[in-house]
Design a protein that fits this description.
Layout lengths: L1 H11 L2 E5 L3 H12 L4 E5 L2 H10 L4 E5 L1 E2 L2 E2 H11 L5 E5 L4 H10 L3 E4 L4 H18 L18 H13 L6 E4 L6 H11 L7 E5 L5 H9 E2 L11 E2 L1 H4 L4 E5 L6 H13 L1 E2 L8 E2 L3 E6 L3 H6 L5 H7 L2 E4 L10 H16 L5 E2 L1 H8 L6 H15 L4 E2 L16 H4 L14 H19 L4 H8 L3 H11 L3
Parallel strand pairs: 1-2, 1-3, 3-6, 6-7, 8-15, 8-16, 9-12, 12-15, 17-18
Antiparallel strand pairs: 4-5, 10-11, 13-14
Helix pairs in contact: 3-4, 4-5, 11-13, 14-16, 18-19, 19-20
């Protein structure tokens, strides 16, 4: 009976295939994994590896890049075609990151460099097994409890499919798209759908951190390393240990920080300010920007080597004007959320209002749609939002007149029976809202655009009741 129980326990242990032609390395990895209660099989070449993969059900495959009868990349491609549910990680020579990037593009789960850091190896294997276990259980269909990607358009279905596929990997993902399209939401969905869902999701706005504080904020510092460092501080990168680090507006990183980020991506290590030794980190890096990184690389404003490291997989989030058919569903969800916040019943959207919204291009995308609906909700007094409650930028302007076409500014129309003070406030409110939307709600930048101080803008925002 004890033999039956032992066999059952052994069968419950994850099974890992190790492919390498170095006997010493095979023994080292096998011993390390056995101490983690994993079973292992070894293969010295591609032919043996393929035969074992066909005969047994593996939870993970670790393969060297150089093998006697071929390349590790060939095995990665074969697994994607024939055993797509098996995560595969590659072992690369030190500094040969190009091969690692190629492997990730082919569908590899992750990579580890020689000489092997056993701590990094254990974390990699642990993440892969978690992913495999999640896909084999009901957790694989667990729902994300935050906001979701709405819309049934073809581009959104394609985006959801890509999110599901990249969630199985540990490869860096770059999310591109216009401001207001929901890039952070896409990043959160990738995190929630993958093996790191139990770990932290740390979002960093690279454009909001002062340059002189950026290194300390990202990598932490040791006590006494500079004036004001009165205690050790953990950086944002280390705070994402075991989870996902989301670098929003990564194009705003200064060049000297791009070099340090490159080392985090390549070597999976960080060095806090004032620390002599580097620390290993286990984070998946997702990034996003509304700018074109390729253009910035051409202009010398973004490092080409970092661009290729963080852009292993690119996801583009479509603009709202590319999926206008999704606007009614998104608008309904937004109104329900706004109504819950104010404790009222959500109004319905009339057909003429829907038609007006679908005919507008929404340069500010979903964020602008939310602003438009919030204003409409305030203006409406009944249970229905109609076209007269919708205020769109430029939509109510008359056809171009000779003066306007010549570039001459026209004075705002004065409405009879309306106080001048209230009209001026309305004009001022519109100008401030436009400046905030143009600067992605950065009040400092908006104040500069409006030609006023930050304190003055903050006062006007509060006085005019702008959220």
């Amino acid at each position: 009976m004890s033999e039956v129980a032992a066999a059952r326990d052994a069968a419950a242990q994850p099974l890992v295939l190790i492919v390498d032609d170095e006997p010493d390395l095979l023994e080292l990895i096998s011993l390390t994994l056995s101490r983690m209660s994993f079973r292992t099989r070894t293969a010295p070449d591609l032919a043996t590896a393929r035969r074992l993969l066909k005969a047994e059900s593996f939870d993970l495959c670790l393969t060297d890049m150089r093998l006697p009868d071929g390349d590790g990349l060939d095995l990665v491609a074969w697994i994607q075609e024939n055993r797509a549910t098996v995560p595969v990680a590659v072992i690369t020579a030190h500094g040969n990151v190009e091969s690692a990037v190629r492997a990730l593009k082919l569908g590899a789960f992750d990579f580890v460099s020689k000489p092997l850091d056993l701590g990094v190896l254990r974390k990699l294997v642990g993440s892969a097994i978690k992913l495999r276990a999640a896909e084999a259980s009901s957790q694989a269909t667990a729902t994300f409890r935050g906001p979701r990607l709405l819309g049934r358009s073809a581009v959104m279905e394609q985006l959801r499919d890509l999110i599901a596929r990249v969630a199985r990997s540990q490869a860096p993902v770059h999310i591109s798209g216009e401001s207001g399209t929901g890039k952070e939401l896409v990043a959160r969905l990738i995190h929630e759908s993958g093996a790191r869902r139990e770990g932290p999701f740390v979002a960093v706005n690279c454009g909001a951190i002062p340059t002189e504080l950026m290194e300390s904020e990202l990598f932490g510092h040791k006590r006494g390393s500079f004036t004001g460092a009165i205690a050790d501080k953990k950086g944002l990168v280390q705070s994402a240990e075991g989870g996902t680090l989301f670098l929003d507006e990564v194009a705003d990183l200064p060049l000297h920080m791009q070099v340090k980020l490159l080392r985090v991506v390549q070597e999976k290590t960080v060095r806090p300010v004032g620390e002599a030794r580097e620390e290993t980190v286990d984070v998946r890096i997702l990034s996003a920007t509304h700018k074109s990184l390729a253009e910035l690389v051409a202009q010398g404003l973004f490092r080409e080597d970092l661009f290729y490291r963080i852009n292993v997989i690119e996801l583009r989030v479509p603009a709202l004007r590319e999926r206008s058919g999704d606007i009614p569903e998104i608008a309904e969800m937004i109104l329900e959320r706004l109504a819950r916040r104010s404790g009222t019943a959500a109004p319905r959207i009339a057909a003429d209002a829907t038609q007006l919204l679908q005919g507008y291009e929404f340069p500010g995308n979903v964020r602008e749609l939310e602003n438009v609906l919030e204003r409409a909700l305030t203006l409406s007094t009944g249970t229905e939002i109609t076209a007269e409650h919708i205020r769109l930028r430029g939509a109510a302007r008359p056809a171009a007149e000779p003066a306007a076409s010549a570039g001459v500014a026209t004075a705002p129309t004065v409405e009879a029976g309306t106080g001048l003070g209230s009209q001026l406030e309305s004009i001022e409110r519109e100008a401030i809202v436009k400046a905030l939307e143009k600067t992605r709600y950065n009040k400092t930048a908006a104040a500069k655009l409006l030609g006023m101080s930050f304190r003055a803008l903050r006062y006007r925002i509060k006085k005019l009741g702008i959220e």
